[in-house]
Design goal:
By secondary structure, the protein is of the alpha+beta class. It has a single domain, classed as Endonuclease/exonuclease/phosphatase (Deoxyribonuclease I, Chain A, 4-Layer Sandwich), CATH 3.60.10.10. Helices cover 16% and strands 37% of the residues. It has helices at 17-27, 50-57, 150-163, 182-187; strands spanning 2-9, 31-38, 62-72, 77-86, 92-99, 104-106, 119-128, 131-139, 169-174, 192-193, 219-223, 228-233, 245-250. The strands form two sheets. The protein has a seven-stranded mixed β-sheet, with helices on one face. The protein is globular and about 45 Å long. It starts with a strand and ends with a strand. The model has no long low-confidence stretch (mean pLDDT 97).
């Protein structure tokens, strides 16, 4: 049975919401994994209302939301975190913090250091075709350069512990680090890096001024060895400062 995934960092809740909506409708994924998902109420700016928009768009999907922090911005305030939407029922849910713990933060008008922001990973189980599909969705520790660090090493160890004995598993998200790190090498002991050495960047350079992003890959998609990848792409839709991933697997 083929299962289609769409993975995307929304960028501050979904600034380019019309384009995001068009992408989701076109790709019609079975499972949608997102980062930087905001959960604000109707008193907040439109892009602060990610979960409401998504639930209206994906009315018949099951969902799981994992806030990382509550952030107060100059223009509004909301929980933000990761979300999974599934066409199929979700029978198990778990949130694992990779860095810090949930807390309340005030965002300065010109914030440029997010290394102290809490980060988590979601794990859900979706029964499909007589098998238990494990879906992991994460937002990794932020840091300039994307290299290994003690904090990222700890993050990698947590991820490895969660995935290493799982079959029929997929792991994806904005890892906020380079594919050449020891963290990724540790993950690759247990899973296949679907886009390995195939991408020049996973950023949408329409929304980046630093040219270094043009050769940076921080978004990744992994599968356990027994999962067959039927197709994969990274469309150039203008939906975020990150590019989406579309991957179809067979289980």
């Amino acid at each position: 049975m083929n299962i289609k995934f769409l993975q995307l960092n929304l960028l501050e809740g979904g600034i380019y919401w019309d384009n995001i909506t068009a992408l989701i409708k076109r790709e019609n994924p079975d499972v949608l994994c997102l980062q930087e998902v905001f959960n604000g109420d109707t008193k907040q700016p439109p892009h602060f209302q990610s979960t409401s928009h998504l639930k209206a768009l994906l009315r018949h999907y099951h969902s799981y939301y994992s806030p990382e922090l509550y952030e107060i911005w100059p223009q509004g305030q909301t929980d933000q975190g990761n979300a999974i939407f599934s066409r199929f029922p979700i029978t198990q849910e778990k949130t694992i913090f990779l860095h810090g713990t949930y807390k309340r933060l005030t965002r300065p008008p010109q914030e440029n250091d997010f290394s102290h922001y809490p980060k988590n990973m979601q794990h859900v189980v979706i029964p499909i075709n007589g098998k238990q599909l494990h879906v992991f969705n994460l937002h990794g520790i932020w840091g300039k350069g994307g290299d290994d660090s003690p904090e990222r090493s700890r993050m990698g160890n947590i991820i490895a512990q969660e995935i290493k004995e799982k079959t029929y598993a997929v792991l994806m998200g904005d890892f906020n680090l380079k594919p050449s790190t020891k963290v990724v090498a540790n993950i690759e002991k247990y899973m296949v890096n679907v886009f390995k050495n195939e991408l020049t960047t996973s950023f949408n350079m329409k929304h980046k001024t630093n040219p270094g992003y043009a050769t940076a890959v921080v978004d990744m998609f992994f599968t356990s060895p027994e999962v067959d990848v039927i197709s994969k792409s990274s469309p150039e839709d203008d939906v975020s400062d990150h590019r989406p991933f579309v991957v179809t697997i067979d289980i």
